[in-house]
Design goal:
This protein is an alpha+beta fold. The structure holds guanosine-5'-diphosphate and magnesium ion.
């Protein structure tokens, strides 16, 4: 395949607008997978993706397509839509020259449509707008075309109307890809220059690096060097993804594929690295901006003897998800562990679920916190840190007010797209979250796009759920980093019978302390089962108690009375209780279910 017959593209869209379904049809039409009724989101390979019905990992597939007598090689990358995984999208785009922007014919432009459009636009990629789900009864492609014209300045006649589900007009999308997306600009005669844009760890074969070739060629036996580590490797296997790994003799400039080269350590195949031939060094590609974590949480093994296993699982999983940052951390109550940075709460949950499902690890997670900052005024502390401005990613390290001249909190610029009838309620919600309105734009007669500057901690936990519920699911939300602002912050502890619950220590805005404290106590009361004694649940700022709930003791004879007669039933119950205990954490004398903390933090 000469370079001019290659097209590299991503499919981008808001969640649920049909990216993965369109990818299925493209795989079928090109004969990459056989047509069966069961092809559903075949590129969503992870268990967590199948269970949640969302894409969290970008996936590549090479398609072969013949058009007007010419054979084309198309490399498709299906991407996630949710804001928490936008790092996957931006990385994928670096291996592409164009995108297919999918918009639902019924829902129209949504917040993540806008965000993903700008990622492609800023990367100067060719953009093919596609209006999907025209088979739906309430589809209104004309209206959506007008929105696309208004918001993105793309003429209405450039849109392709399709039904990914039924296959209508999908062939037209392929033709547009060939016409509109330029082939990659590179040369096989140049020295090898390969960008590692993703990698996974295979238990048997070591690191499998997904690469995009910007120059030269690569084949088995080649000696290659990593620009990042300067280490040398011998290539064992190269190939393309169809979408499973299929070995080929060579990969050429312009192609997207994978390489296995005996990298055994997960640290050896950094995403963003450039590979070149031994003794033929090239200028490394710019790589990727590192992801900027939005929330941090502590992670600890349930049992300290599992520490090393968890460490190795974390290393392998973060290779596949390079947007997670890791620092070692420890706590009196929880032992040795880590502080992890995530792009959002969904990201944190998905990462945790992948640890459980793919590595069989279960962990204790602490309350997520956003990265606050403090400008220190105490000479002693400044000397200790070697600087005056520090970032606080752990509430345990929150410096006292007397040694601080100013606290700062991170902010984001949020985009909300909503039918106009919900504007009133949404404005009230945003004000309640200390947000400041920045812009308002009618994208058609009925839909509005609002821009607000939010303190990040006000949206991280449950803003999206609140927005969804007050708009009956119709409003969508996305955000981007917008720097820091001064804030009046305090640290709040949660106590059980006087003992602090380390998992729930939080930093909060002082205006919100009472409300937050009260809420956490109430929710914790619901999440902890009654025990043999009364439990005081308190929120405290320093020594001052600001909220309290009391969990009454249960009467212990109930179980004995009901099941006393039936010995097997009784044994079964005791066994189940013993298993349940493993999932408990003891704070003082109080037993707390391990998942209680997450439930408390996530309003249900
Ligand atoms: P993604 O989140 O963008 O990858 O979206 P999916 O491909 O997972 O699709 C989301 C939902 O929309 C699934 O239930 C699909 O079956 C459905 N869907 C996708 N394309 C169409 C279409 O053309 N018509 C209809 N009626 N439903 C579709
Ligand atoms: Mg998907």
């Amino acid at each position: 395949y000469p370079v001019e017959n290659i097209r590299n593209f991503s499919i981008i869209a808001h969640v649920d607008h049909g990216k993965s379904t369109l990818a299925d049809r493209l795989l079928e039409i090109t004969g990459t997978i056989s047509k069966t009724a069961r092809n559903k989101q075949v590129l969503d390979k992870l268990q967590v993706e199948r269970e949640r019905g969302i894409t969290v990992k970008a996936q590549s597939a090479s398609l072969f397509y013949s058009h007007e007598g010419v054979n084309y090689l198309l490399n498709l990358i299906d991407t996630p839509g949710h804001v928490d995984f936008s790092y996957e999208v931006s990385r994928s785009l670096s291996a592409c020259q164009g995108v297919v922007l999918v918009v639902d014919a019924n829902e129209g432009i949504q917040a993540q449509t806008v965000a993903n459009f700008y990622l492609a636009f800023e990367a100067q990629l060719a953009i093919i707008p596609v209006i999907n789900k025209i088979d739906l009864k309430h589809a209104d492609p004309e209206r959506v075309e007008k929105q696309i014209e208004k918001v993105f300045d793309i003429p209405t006649d450039e849109c392709v109307r399709i039904s990914a589900k039924q296959g209508t007009n999908v062939e037209k999308v392929l033709q547009k890809i060939i016409e509109k997306i330029p082939p990659p600009q590179c040369n096989t005669a140049d020295p090898l220059k390969a960008l590692v844009f993703d990698s996974t760890f295979d238990h048997y074969r070591g690191v499998i690096a997904n690469i995009a070739l910007f120059g030269g060629e690569i084949q088995k036996g080649h000696k290659i060097v990593s620009a990042h580590t300067k280490k040398r490797y011998e290539v064992n296997e190269v190939g393309i993804l169809t979408p499973n790994e299929q070995p080929t003799l060579k990969l050429y400039a312009g192609q997207v594929g994978y390489v296995i080269a005996g990298m055994k350590e997960v640290t050896e195949a950094q995403v963003g690295d450039t590979l070149f031939l031994y003794k033929q060094p090239v200028e490394p590609l710019p790589g990727f901006k590192s992801a900027k974590p939005m929330v941090f949480a502590g992670m600890y093994p349930v049992d300290q003897t599992e520490y090393n296993n968890l460490k190795s699982a974390l290393e392998k999983l973060t290779l596949n998800d390079s947007s997670v940052t890791i620092h070692r951390d420890s706590s009196l109550a929880l032992g040795a562990g880590w502080r992890l940075g995530f792009l959002g709460l969904l990201h944190m949950e998905v990462f945790n679920q992948r640890l459980e499902q793919e590595y069989n690890m279960s962990v204790i997670l602490t309350a997520p916190t956003v990265p606050y900052k403090a400008i220190l005024s105490s000479a002693k502390l400044i000397k200790e840190h070697g600087k005056a401005e520090i970032t606080i990613i752990n509430p345990a390290q929150f410096p006292d007010k007397i040694s601080v001249s100013e606290y700062l909190e991170p902010t984001v610029l949020g985009t909300i797209v909503t039918p106009q009838e919900y504007i009133g309620k949404i404005i009230v919600l945003c004000q309640d979250r200390r947000a400041v309105q920045k812009d308002i734009l009618y994208i058609d007669e009925h839909r509005v796009m609002l821009k607000y500057l939010f303190p990040l901690n006000e949206i991280v936990l449950d803003f999206y759920d609140a927005l969804k519920s007050l708009s009956s699911g119709y409003a969508s939300f996305d955000y981007e980093d917008a720097g820091y602002q001064a804030a009046d912050l305090i640290k709040m502890d949660i106590l059980l019978n006087g003992n602090p619950v380390e998992e729930l220590a939080t930093i909060t805005h002082s205006d919100k302390a009472y409300a937050t404290g009260k809420l956490l106590c109430e929710r914790l009361k619901d999440a902890i089962p009654r025990q043999l004694f009364e439990i005081a649940i308190q929120a405290a700022i320093g020594k001052r108690i600001i909220a309290r709930e009391t969990l009454k003791a249960y009467r212990k004879n109930v179980v004995a009375k009901c099941y006393g007669g039936d010995i097997t039933r009784r044994m079964k119950l005791l066994k189940r209780q013993a298993e349940g205990k493993k999932l408990m954490r003891k704070i003082g004398n109080v037993e707390v279910p391990r998942d209680a903390f997450i439930r408390v933090l996530k309003r249900e």
